[in-house]
Write a sequence for this structure.
């Protein structure tokens, strides 16, 4: 019987509709790096924070479906950071409290939680340096919560900052949804998006996450190719 892997997160991980393509979430590519014994259930949704994901009862739905030995990957931060909106949370306040609820759901069902800090934005400072503070305190707050709850954390923010740092600004643009006018029917006026990925960008982020899991002792490791 296959194990289930659930992804709870925002638009950077979410499955994209045909109208949004070539925008692609890393969760769409994650199965490329998993054995056939794992069945991916991608619950990530555009525009969600820990707060809105919970209030919309999406976590409740995962709780109904997840079972012993399954996996729950939890990645939020981009929208929690929007503290001037109803969905925003404070990094060392309700953000951590909400993340703890995701962990509790997994542990209550004897499943395995795994916290993932958010992927970086393609956000450069005037001097051409990648902005190391583009997600504020949220990555550090998740790492601190993981330590407190003894939950493994993959610091995807640090990993993607390091990865982007290997390339110039023009090269990292190739990972994101950048299209000139007239190049794609879904974006006739063109698009410049430094948060969301194209197909190759999503694949590279999924690859980075999978490689990091293989370096841990998390039970998911045995299913990562």
């Amino acid at each position: 019987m296959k194990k289930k892997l659930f992804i709870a997160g925002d638009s950077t991980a979410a499955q994209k509709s045909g109208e949004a393509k070539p925008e692609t979430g890393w969760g769409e590519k994650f199965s490329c790096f998993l054995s056939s014994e794992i069945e991916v259930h991608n619950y990530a949704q555009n525009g969600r924070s820990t707060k809105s994901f919970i209030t919309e009862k999406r976590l409740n739905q995962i709780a109904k479906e997840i079972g012993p030995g399954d996996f729950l990957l939890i990645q939020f931060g981009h929208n929690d950071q929007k503290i001037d909106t109803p969905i925003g949370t404070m990094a060392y306040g309700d953000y951590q409290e909400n993340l703890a609820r995701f962990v509790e759901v997994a542990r209550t069902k004897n499943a395995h939680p795994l916290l993932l800090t958010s992927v970086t934005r393609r956000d450069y400072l005037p001097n051409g340096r990648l902005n190391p503070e583009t997600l504020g305190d949220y990555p550090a707050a998740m790492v601190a919560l993981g330590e407190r709850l003894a939950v493994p954390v993959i610091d995807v923010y640090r990993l993607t900052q390091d990865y982007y740092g290997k390339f110039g600004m023009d090269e990292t643009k190739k990972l994101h949804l950048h299209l000139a006018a007239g190049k794609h029917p879904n974006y006739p006026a063109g698009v410049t998006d430094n948060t969301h990925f194209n197909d190759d960008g999503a694949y590279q982020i999924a690859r980075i996450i999978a490689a990091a899991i293989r370096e841990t002792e998390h039970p998911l490791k045995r299913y990562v190719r």
